[in-house]
Amino acid sequence: MSRLRPKLLALIVAMALLAPAGAARAQEAKPADTLAPETKYWREDTAVSPPAELTRFNQLLADLSDQLKPALVYVSVRRTPGRDREDEGPGEPRRSSGSGFIIDPGGLIVTNAHVVEDADWIQIRLADGRRFPGKVMGRDTRADLALIKLDGVSNLPTLPLGDSNRVRVGEFVLALGHPFGLEQTVSFGIVSRKGSSLGASLPGVDYIQTDASINPGNSGGPLVNMAGQVVGVNSMAARNGSIGFAIPSSLVKMLVPPLVANGKMEWGFLGVSITEVGEDDLGRLKLREAKGVLVRGVIPGEPAERGGMQPDDVIIGIDGLPVSEPRELQRAVSTSPVGKRVRVVVLRAGEQKEIDITIGRWEERPERTERAPR
After folding, report:
1. Whole-structure pTM value
2. How far apart, in whole angstroms, are the C-alpha atoms of residue 362 and residue 364?
């Protein structure tokens, strides 16, 4: 008996130690129909909460989205059948939709030019559900920007235009719109890059590239920074949808006045094909450094030829501004008023010359497209 006593004591202690665990397992194994309804299928843990910084950031994003949505509009468009290749059938009008946002309380709306292209009928639905007929006030296909005017409205909510020149790669942005006909969507991302967009017809403009989702129907919606300012207008996306491009707000600010006043924008034009100056060009062109813009060809009858510009001229300045690469020249020429007389500084066979050229008008013809080769 004395030999069994230590073994018995050890067994009692072990059972005592295992009892709580066994009780817990028994409790967990309770049938589902004996549990409270809210805990039948899952276990809620209200004690866990995200870090205070993340909670604050989430709250700020949600508040910002609520602040922006009232000025977002849904653009419905109807086109006459037979005017394009995507008609739904004989006699049936083709319908499409896009997005836009209000910049003036009197009903001035910014959207993309391709959203309202060839439209016979435009309807704008405001965030509060009201619907109004819209009229295209101005449109520019080169920049893909259009203005729509609503009549008989006032005191509408608006979005302010920010300074896209100050936007930095890596900044957070929100893309708002109505993709696939869904209402009031917001996607979050960063500015991935600033520069030319895919197939952009307006060279020299720093389009804003973002990974915030931009899908069909987002076109014309605003790209907004964390201060609630519009820094771009959603315009296009890559085929796989992974990256999107927005028209910079600096260009929007430049286009709105002429579109309101004249319904269109007149872009400046020289009539030259250009490229960068390479190291292998230095000897042939008698240059000391690879700087400036090399004129590869001059289009007959256009402003550059009439002013006396020649192939192999190297442009180093225009209208008092230094020029070191093609984008600077493209930007300076395209934004110069048509008919303005400018002084172009060139290096010709190593000698500096000044040429007076009258800025011409850019027209949408392939042979007149002025751009540097890719």
Report:
1. 0.79
2. 7
